[in-house]
């Protein structure tokens, strides 16, 4: 029997666009208003306006501050607890005009702290609310530059980079892979982010990061991606219940096992009488086809009748049918029952 006589499914067809729907629960986040959160985030220099005003007033009376400088300082000071955007504009103007001295240093520290807090909020708003993933990735790198060991930021950068790639911008894939691996190593070492959102905890975050890693290395090292997909599925995270990961697992099996096995079989045994050696090689192919069939069946079963999976489900069903027929004498009999029961079985 020659496996090359069967139509080889194009299992590496891109299914990435469906992941945004699949993991939508993991990206549900509404950023709080900038001014509100900055009130919490800024340093104590902004919490002592009375003393600063008194000192500034004395300096003004002593002729050490000009009227314009004192007025601008007071505009910054008066707004830092009530209208921080206005305070920021005044502070930035003050630092630009009067960068030196005690007051310049005080205002500069506040302005820089405000900018750092604003970037954090902008990063998460772009990622979770506005879904501008490439822009979020750029801002997130600036946030990480200020706090290089911030685990939450590293995790969110991995997510932003992956979703940007999923949307068609793969320019940051190498960096994204690095962030995913860094975050995974930190989590596995016991580190915890300041906030688990949008995940439910460590297993959920690890599963998602392992999925990202497997997806980003699928084309270059599909055998390794199989390990990451299976690791993600084994984790008690939401990813294990999404259909897309099983379609990608099937694609990894095709690229890493089925295609090379089929090519070798054709080269060695194509057009020849069956031998014990060829039968053993065919059994290896059959075992791989069984893994692929199982993975596609899980993708189809988990996609159910949800409209968001309609297009992808049709492709998965087509691939599943071809592989199923390969193992069942070109017949699809029993396929529906197989799909119905596949999720009750452990992953082979």
Give a verbal description of the structure.
The chain has 3 domains: 116 residues, no CATH class; 114 residues, Serine Threonine Protein Phosphatase 5, Tetratricopeptide repeat, CATH 1.25.40; 102 residues, no CATH class. It is elongated, with a radius of gyration of 29 Å. It is 68% helix and 0% strand. The N terminus is likely disordered. It is built from 15 helices and no strands. Helix 13 packs across helix 15. The protein has 348 residues and is mainly α.
Structural class: mainly alpha
Quaternary arrangement of the chains shown? single chain
Number of helices: 15
The number of E-state strands comes to 0
How would a crystallographer describe the biggest sheet? none
Radius of gyration: 29 Å
Low-confidence stretches: 1-51
Shape: elongated
Provide the number of structural domains: 3
Helix content: 55-70%
Arithmetic mean of pLDDT: 85
In whole angstroms, how far apart are the ends?
25 Å
In terms of DSSP E residues, the strand content is under 5%
What are the secondary-structure elements, in order, as H or E?
A: HHHHHHHHHHHHHHH
């Amino acid at each position: 029997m020659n496996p090359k006589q069967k139509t080889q499914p194009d299992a590496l067809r891109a299914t990435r666009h469906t992941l945004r729907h699949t993991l939508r629960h993991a990206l549900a986040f509404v950023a709080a208003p900038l001014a509100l959160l900055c009130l919490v985030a800024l340093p104590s220099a902004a919490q002592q306006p009375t003393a600063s005003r008194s000192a500034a007033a004395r300096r003004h009376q002593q002729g050490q501050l000009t009227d314009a400088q004192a007025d601008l300082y007071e505009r910054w000071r008066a707004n830092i607890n009530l209208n921080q955007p206005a305070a920021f504009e005044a502070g930035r103007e003050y630092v630009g005009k009067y960068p030196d001295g005690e007051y310049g240093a005080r205002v500069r520290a506040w302005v820089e702290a405000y900018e750092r807090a604003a970037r954090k909020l902008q990063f998460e708003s772009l990622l979770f609310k506005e879904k501008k993933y490439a822009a979020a990735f750029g801002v997130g790198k600036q946030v990480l530059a200020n706090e290089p060991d911030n685990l939450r930021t590293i995790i969110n950068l991995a997510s932003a980079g992956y979703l940007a790639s999923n949307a068609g911008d793969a320019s940051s894939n190498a960096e994204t892979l690095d962030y995913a691996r860094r975050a995974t190593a930190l989590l596995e070492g016991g580190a915890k982010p300041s906030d688990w959102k949008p995940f439910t905890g460590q297993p959920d975050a690890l599963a998602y990061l392992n999925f990202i890693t497997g997806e980003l290395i699928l084309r270059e090292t599909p055998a390794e991606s199989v390990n990451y997909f299976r690791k993600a599925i084994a984790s008690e995270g939401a990813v294990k219940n999404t259909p897309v990961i099983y379609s990608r697992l099937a694609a990894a099996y095709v690229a890493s096992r089925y295609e090379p096995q089929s090519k070798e079989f054709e080269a060695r045994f194509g057009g020849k009488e069956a031998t014990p050696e060829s039968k053993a090689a065919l059994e290896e192919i059959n075992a791989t086809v069984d893994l692929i069939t199982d993975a596609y069946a899980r993708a189809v079963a988990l996609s159910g009748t949800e409209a968001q999976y309609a297009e992808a489900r049709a492709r998965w069903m087509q691939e599943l049918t071809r592989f199923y027929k390969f193992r069942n004498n070109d017949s699809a009999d029993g396929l529906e029952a197989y799909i119905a029961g596949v999720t009750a079985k452990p992953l082979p």
